[in-house]
Structure formats: C-alpha cells, structure tokens
Protein: Myb/SANT-like domain-containing protein
Organism: Coptis chinensis
Amino acid sequence: MASGGVNPMSGNSRVTWNANMEPILIEVLLEEATSGRRNSYIAINGWTTASLKRIANEINRRLNMTLVSDNVRSKLKIMKKDGTLDQAGL
C-alpha cells in the first residue's frame, strides 16, 4: 500500500493524505468534472455518491490503496475550506 492510505490494522477508516495523493485527487476530480457524465457534479450540493466512488476507485487503482468514497468526501471538505478546490478551478 502507498504511504498515506487507510490503515486496516487501526480499526478505523481515517486516512492520512500525503503529498503525492492530493495532486492525483485534483487530477481525477477534473477528469470527473469534464467527463460529460450527466449529474457527475452538482455545484450547489457537491459531488454525487457515484462520482465519489469513481474518484476513490481511480485513486486506489493509481496508488494501490483502499480509499472509500467517505475518505474522498472528507478530504474534499478540507480542501474546500482551505481554498485548494478554488485554486484548482473546482
């Protein structure tokens, strides 16, 4: 597993996001936002559950991790709060 992932031994699903993960998350978010899928992203309410799952799956594939949609949702809340999503054009 890549550094920063879910620790299955800890008994919880908290994720420590490392420096390699956030750029990939932004890249996958941009891909999802521009994919043309109907209702992938709802600007007022945030990302759909289906989109969050696709994003988590893609990050898992690229980094050999075990993220779930709630891990992505939680990180997105932090990124929205600190302005990272605005800087990325999301």
Summary: The beta strands are 41-42, 46-47. The chain is about 50% helix and 5% strand.
